[in-house]
Amino acid sequence: MPPTAPQDPSQPWSRKAFLRGMTAAGLAPLLPAVLPTAAHAAAASGRPGFDLVRDGVAVDVFVDAADDPAVIRAAGDLQADVERVCGVRPGLRHTLAERSTALVLVGTLGASPVIDRLAAQGRLDVRRVKGRWEASVTQVVERPAPGVDRALVIAGSDRRGTVYGIYDTSERIGVSPWYWWADVPVEQRDTVTVPAGPFERREPSVRYRGVFINDEQNLTTWSQRTQETDKNIGPRTYQRLFELLLRLKANYLWPAMHPYSDFFNKYRENPELAERYGIVVGSSHPEALLRNGVHEWAPWAEEHRGADGGLPVYDYTVNPAVISDYWRARARENAAYESSWTIGMRGLHDTALETKHATTIPEKVVVMNDIIADQRRILAEEVGAAAQPQIFIPYKEVLDLYNAGVQVPDDVTLIWPDDNHGNMRQLPDDAERARSGGNGIYYHLSYWGRPRSYLWLDTTQLAKVWQELRRVYEHGVDRMWIFNVGDLKSIETGLSFSLDMAWDVDRWHADDVGAFLAEWYGRQFGLRHAQEIASIRTEYYRLAAERRPEFIDRNMFSVVHHGDEAGRRMAAYDRLLDRTVALGAELPAAYRDAYYELVQYPVHGAYLMNLKYYWADRNALAVRQGRGAGANVFADLAEAAHTQEAALTKRYNTEVAGGKWDGYINPYPSQIPKAPGRPAVTRVTRQETSGLGVASEGNEIGTQRPLAFSATTRDRRFVDVFNTGFLAVDWVAEAEHPWVRLSSAGGTLTEQTRVWVEIDWARTPEGTHDVTVAVTGGAQRFEVPLKVVNDGERARRRARGFVEANGYVSIDAVHTERRVARGRARWRTVRGLGRRTAAVEAVPSTAAPITSDFVAHAPELRYRVRFGSTGSFPVTVFRLPSLDERGARRLALALDDQPPTVLSGQSVATGNRGDAWARNVEEGIEKLTATVTVTEPGDHVLRVFMVDPGIAVDQIVVDTGGLPAAAYLAPPESYHPVFNPEPDTGTGLDAPSR
């Protein structure tokens, strides 16, 4: 892994050196890896570390009583963290002792005389910290004060800078930010030593970094059951949340706001606690000036009835004075707290803006401008200069109004929304980037709404998050990043990564997002298991990229094409689950609750959600095929998978961590969208009959479509043999030639079996052969046609690129023959992105579009392809959805020197169901198709050109006449002598056969 920052050779404290020092200190091999970080560290060579605890004695912590309450409170957490590690609690001092061998000095520049004196003397290097936003330095200082021999100094540029420095130290000694929220254990040690430093945490990449607690029914249920039985999310829960946010280096919150939760300002302890912790509290797009319309408007309206006794409506064109007073009351009430003020307006509870007396877009723009002016006046009068930051969120229809001319004051931060599915809708132009208020984003890691909701598990690929956040930052969006995390749990990994990027956007690169997973899981479970857990999680995200488990439905994946693509996918899940369970069994007992929460439950839950729908689809197909007992087997398997899923969730809520999470994990809440539930199945009435049936791969019923075999891809195909009744039937299968191999030649069958057909290529004559496999039982006989193409081993060895076989060419886009950079743009690999191992992206995202003369000016991808067919063939480019509502999403495609064809993707988020945008976000890809003409067989070059930057390509498929229309995924990648010399012919998941 590359170092986190350029290293000063005179102060070589690299991450490797740090880990070597930890090892030398005798730490257990399971000790989590130390800091993440984007921090910059160095230590004088040979300088001894600082003992926080030795021989059962802990060093006291000093913080000036005049320092900010947030700093004093966090110093108390450092006490608790040292005690968690060593069982001994340091003292907390507000005055310096006359004599002290060692001390931890905590303080904020300008608020701690001791810290200021060290800085003024040049003994504490604060040159890259002082005057910065939330920066800190940690270093050992010899004789820092009279009577003190040695001190570990933690100094911040402001209150949160100091707080982050404190929590850095906690994490360095082995206390995970998730120690409470995910039950990550703290490794016990007798001695705790930290390096001498200095260790700098410079300014964050993004100024305000936080979360939106949203769609929080499960959190509310859990909070009411376990935290505050008289409240539906109250101060005790927020106190836990504030601590987590600070440990994750966040500083910002949009609190829970749904009808089933108590609104944040209902309890005055909430904003007071936020202030004491140093958390900036704001509000979401429908909650102007910190007002929760769901709870607060109705009682306000009741108290402000009109002269006729009627209730005022939340419509600024009807009741501007009543609404203005409603906002003013909250501004006055919260003026003393560090807050973020949302301006603008939407309807109550995230509904569209109501404007009875403004019906056209231009009229609504005028109304919105009046609203903003009124709100600005209120803030100036009630809060004054402290009313910062102010934000405007052009979400859904408000984006249309903004683009139509809403005038947002220059010092207000524009918060750009994604499409709710992780694709940024539009980014600021040059004029918007120049605004003093800057720009931010509202980004979803969880979502309730069209076309489908995903609220259960963390299923957005981290590489996708990286790609979009990197693009955002390159467009100058660095003032505020707010992440919709649903009800928080299950989003632990995605949230940690997102906030890590918000702190240091340059920390991770296109080729090492997986390194974040290894580092992060290493900190939770120990370095010994880090790489395997990271690999498990990467595959979990990849399978979710094919289809989120929350989006699964009937007939999504084909059970008859590409070797049963649904079964192959389930086999991948099955292998992943085996690895997950095996690793969990290796962990010490103390780690198993955290492992269940962070790794095992998401993998197992996603597996079972897919499995029950797989068996339900097999059941439906079995009924259509006329199967007897076998149809009921599939019904039983689907029901069993759903039952197992329920048991899995019950374990989370009742057993994990002693039942600590009672009510928190629930795929099927009552008031918000549910994960897919129990699929309907059909059972066949038992009849005392028997009969033989056969269906071969590629056919829902019967054997009409031949099984295709190529010596290039060395395929494996299946034939389902089944009983149409319930009494046993004998059957026999026989191939026409001895070089056709069958996994089973017959037997006695009650239900069904799957016979795999392969070719012994060493014994197969060259040429094209039409072959038959006969399946007989009693008086019944079925013939399964095979088309076998053997070009010979020499032809396979001569291939230099991808080879057409079985009527198609399938290419993973990352497997290029050559990449050509042109101008100032290029294609780069983004590992862990898309449905395969990686995708390619046109960068930089700020490059100018190329709209003509692509061969001379556009960055290019080249793929060598050997065609055996000639004709005009459709080529489908699987691009990863991305949007630009003020631009376009285009690329160009050509074969050899033929003129390129421009392909235009969906650039606008419609918010509808059933249209192109909806299909793209459900499937995680967009299929763009053009036609190329192959005039003669042999080697050709397929070329892909960038038109618009920031566009990513996952797979490319050429249909030369063999692709089935019903498949969901691209077919397995074609043979390539380098990238894919042994094409995947793996076995899918199958039911027990009897």
From TrEMBL:
Gene3D superfamilies per record: 1.20.58.2150, 2.60.120.1620, Chitobiase/beta-hexosaminidase domain 2-like (3.30.379.10), Glycosyl hydrolase family 115 (3.20.20.520)
Taxonomic lineage: Bacteria, Bacillati, Actinomycetota, Actinomycetes, Kitasatosporales
Keywords: Hydrolase, Signal
Domain of life, per lineage: Bacteria
One function term, GO molecular function aspect: hydrolase activity
Alphabetical GO biological process terms: carbohydrate metabolic process
InterPro entries linked: GH115, GH115_C, GH115_sf, Hex-like_dom2, TAT_signal
Protein name: Gylcosyl hydrolase 115 C-terminal domain-containing protein
Domain Gylcosyl hydrolase 115 C-terminal: 801-973
Organism: Streptomyces asoensis
Key word Secreted present: no
Transmembrane segments: none
Pfam family, one: GH115_C
Endpoints of the signal sequence: 1-41
